[in-house]
Batch of 2 targets.
Target 1
Amino acid sequence: DARVTQTPRHKVTEMGQEVTMRCQPILGHNTVFWYRQTMMQGLELLAYFRNRAPLDDSGMPKDRFSAEMPDATLATLKIQPSEPRDSAVYFCASGWGGSGNTIYFGEGSWLTVV
Amino acid sequence: DQQVKQNSPSLSVQEGRISILNCDYTNSMFDYFLWYKKYPAEGPTFLISISSIKDKNEDGRFTVFLNKSAKHLSLHIVPSQPGDSAVYFCAASDSGGGADGLTFGKGTHLIIQP
């Protein structure tokens, strides 16, 4: 049963600390997305990769957020320094590139910054 | 500026009746539409999709209707069951724009009452 795997599932951290979230996409998928879910904004696209190359990170606050894909089985989203307003659920999703293709979500990383 | 709008934050329907969830979009370039279902503490899961070349797609109890001229789509669930209680997200993409990321609405919380 192929699935997107995210770690950690839950993270509570103090303001100013670095947070790293990890994602293992479904094997064979060439496109990886990072979404953030908040009550106010719903699901927002932060960044995505195709064949490990970043294609769009315009949804991401550049000064504190960074996304990388060191290899085909790992995508990371890092926040440094974290702030209380970053508290949200962060979802990773993967799929085949090109519109018309469904993307599949992981279970999310629940981040609370206090 | 929200390009995908779900104007009903919540909807309550009696078990066995029809549930109709609505979604409007503003970007006329969108040509692929999806519905995702989300349970608490889980990631969104793909439910059903429709291409802009069609006006209806059916999968079991779920039917999605697309009205391109009105920029409106709807999801019908018949008959509604208790397990259908969840948040439903409408999503859209533009294949010609070269972007792969889906644009989501803020979701509608469907509550099926026994």
Note: The mean pLDDT of chain A is 92.
Target 2
Amino acid sequence: QSVLTQPPSVSAATGQKVTISCFGGDSNIGTKYVSWYQHLPGTAPKLLIYDNNKRPSGIPDRFSGSKSGTSATLAIAGLQPGDEADYYCGTWDMSLSTGVFGGGTKLTVL
Amino acid sequence: EVQLVESGGGLVQPGGSLRLSCAVSGFNFNDHWMSWVRQAPGKGLDWVANIRADGSEAIYAGSVKGRFTISRDNAKNSLFLQMNNLRAEDTAVFYCVTDSPGLGMRYWGQGTLVTVSS
């Protein structure tokens, strides 16, 4: 059971927009920055969003992040077949004093 | 070019030990906190431990506390994870990753597979 809750799967058609939610609590998302990661099987995870809504260099602006209260959202616009991957939210939990991830969301591009 | 290369994974019996290494290049290792993150087969990402840039403090997930030790050698641009008393549930791909405050987990290695089985 993950500390952060994500939907197991989402899907949308090529070119469309999809959002992935991440629900936590006061001790994690409510007080700490959230990051988002893309993970394709057999490869290293990739940082997409950090500090709730910042993109590292090289990440296209099709990827955006937001946070409200104890939840965070990753939005991917203009979906491409190459976006099919697992997506994870992550942050720090002040009560556990550990890093925490969501359980991951598998994105299918139809 | 930023590179993080893990090594030291393999097959070990329950109760055994392994030491993972992560060799870093392409950025100033001394400036970055570092973490180990693992992924068990068919499961999601699981945070294991992190260590401050100067090595002065380390924090562990409850599931590994007392069994795993994270350390670093800034002179050799290397991160380590000593894993003792390994259990079947520790079977996973282990990734080393930079984890400095305000930067997210930015640079990841390709991972090394640890299999705990008799």
Note: Chain A has a mean pLDDT of 96.
